[in-house]
Amino acid sequence: MASNEQVQRQDELIDWFVSQQVDGIIVSPVSAQMRISKRWRDIPMVIIDNQIEDEQIPYIGLNHEDTAYQAAEHLLKQNHQSIALILGNPASSATADTRMGYKAALEDFEQQMDERLISYQYTDLSLQATEKYGYDTVQQLFAQSNHPTALIASNHAMLSGILQALKTKELKVPEDVAIVTLEENSWNKVHYPSLTAVGIHAETIGASIFARLKQFFEGESEQIQSDWLMAQLNVRDSSVHSSKNE
Length: 246
Fold this sequence. Notes:
The chain is of the alpha/beta class. 37% of the residues lie in helices and 14% in strands.
């Protein structure tokens, strides 16, 4: 079930699952400040995507700082000096870590970070709103004379809006603007041009989640460790001109 990035809805859904006596719960928290209620602790729970401060609950997800670093580093190696970073929920630990990785890459290439190139999705965080946010952000960025030559998109819904906006403005990828997404999926390969991504396949994340739930079910809860998965850079057409090599 979807919380639509609303804390109250998230907690109501978890309460409902607990009332139904489910065997386990997988949660992608709205915020890094999520608090685990006492009434939830009798049911095995795994946190994904957005790390929270409760160390008793195992976390399975990407090292978002490293993921963003790889994306920015790749674009910097292509001699891009104006790289926009389009982020999601500012309350998310994933958003904060992504920003840190982006900043670290710029510093390693002796470039200053320009806050005007970083966008956050502050309001409605539903999928439809996220797509519109990606569209609107590109419209704003390219209304300026000194627009970016590369974009990093945090997720697939956002990326969809970004690509629609670029098409509307008749901007070509990668000739006019390079694109890197921080979410890997099969769509990235079949899209034209194919999309450079830094990420990990959902099957790998799913396998890690259920390995830990299995430990819960077998009474090994004290041995369960969080799993920080390392993303891989998959260079495709959206970020490299055909005349260039990685």
